[in-house]
Amino acid sequence: MARPIRATISAPALRHNYAQAKAAAPRSRVLAVVKANGYGHGLDRVARSLGPVVDGFGTLEIEGAVRLRESGFAGEIVLLEGFFEASELAVIAGARLATSVHSEEQLRMLHASPPPTPIDIYLKINTGMNRLGIAPRAAKGALDRIRESGAAKSITLMTHFANADGPAGVAEAMRRFEEATQGLALPRSLANSAAIFAHPETHADTVREGVALYGATPFADRSAEQLGLKPVMTLTSQVIAVQELEPGDTVGYGSTFRCDRAMRIGVVACGYADGYPRHAPSGTPVVVGGVRTKTVGRVSMDMITVDLKPVSHARVGTPVTLWGEGLPIDEVAVASGTVGYELMCAVMPRVPIIEVA
Ligand SMILES: *Cc1c(COP(=O)(O)O)cnc(C)c1O
């Protein structure tokens, strides 16, 4: 039998989480964000599952966007980071992609080498994230320049929030956005997952659902379950060895874990080369044989070690859930000092995928 690690990807859960965003933002179009290979779930797989139901897709990688179009998807596909060189404008026009325009350099490219046919443009305004975006005071000037270029088939006003998930909230960003766009009769797109669920005043014409689509929470203080989301990816493996240890024995590289009692330790076929976080400390939750227990010792390349005390029935071959159905990815992320986003994006190509249609 092959090494037992698997990632099971549920298409019904994806469609459910998309429907949750539609229910939260009932008057808006909902773009399914599929950058980074569908947050690690597989761009083509996610597109196949959602294509028949979504209003559109948002992504960053132009090759994937073109492939999505060639696969027959007829709706909107938005390049959220825009283009990086002028030669991409012809590709964007050819595949009927929409693109964000967030910088002076991009405005210059639009003028110097306009696309062969007009394209759909999302003009991105910086409301405090200070990564991408035109300064609010320069927004109307940028809009004029896009119009003068003749490159735009449509223009949507866009921003991305720095604090939609946290206590600072969106009020200041909304104030800046409204000031910058006052009087402009153009469609608007502001909300990511956090704003979809926490800030209905941001919904406007088009929202952009990323992490919530995959069943993880964007919030520190509201679980995915509380948001009505279902896990899309379940990472499972098996116990491949059992060690009976004495008090004082240690486990793993660096001997960082020392038994304070006689312990049964399970060795699980899953390590950082599968995408499990190496910085997950002893005590990170894991489910063995349907019972919740904890990791002990360092995560190594191909294995983790787990305490079998609560699972007396565990033996070689006992199933293990690393995250997903039965153990929220967000709990593993919190224990590891990161977010669900990073864990799901990091699952490695060597992990075989099982699709649930
Ligand atoms: C990634 C991304 C999103 C989705 O964010 P989530 O927090 O995953 O919902 C939305 N908008 C833009 C511009 C993005 O880059």
UniProtKB/TrEMBL annotation:
- GO molecular function per UniProt: alanine racemase activity; pyridoxal phosphate binding
Q: Name one GO biological process term.
A: D-alanine biosynthetic process
**Domain Alanine racemase C-terminal: from-to ranges:** 232-356
Matching entries from SMART domains are given as: Ala_racemase_C
SUPFAM superfamilies per the UniProt record, alphabetical: Alanine racemase C-terminal domain-like, PLP-binding barrel
Which cofactor names does the annotation list? pyridoxal 5'-phosphate
Q: Where is the active site?
A: K35, Y253
Name the InterPro entries for this protein: Ala_racemase (IPR000821), Ala_racemase/Decarboxylase_C (IPR009006), Ala_racemase_C (IPR011079), Ala_racemase_N (IPR001608), Ala_racemase_pyridoxalP-BS (IPR020622), PLP-binding_barrel (IPR029066)
State the top-level EC class.
isomerase
Superkingdom: Bacteria
Assigned keywords, A-Z: Isomerase, Pyridoxal phosphate
Modification type N6-(pyridoxal phosphate)lysine: residues: K35
Q: Which residues bind substrate?
A: R131, M301
Q: Which GO terms describe its cellular component?
A: cytosol
Record pathway: Amino-acid biosynthesis; D-alanine biosynthesis; D-alanine from L-alanine: step 1/1
What Pfam family is a match for this entry? Ala_racemase_N
Q: What is its EC number?
A: 5.1.1.1
Q: Which reaction does it catalyse?
A: L-alanine = D-alanine
Q: Which family does it belong to?
A: Belongs to the alanine racemase family.
What job does this protein perform?
Answer: Catalyzes the interconversion of L-alanine and D-alanine. May also act on other amino acids.
What name does the UniProt record give this protein?
A: Alanine racemase
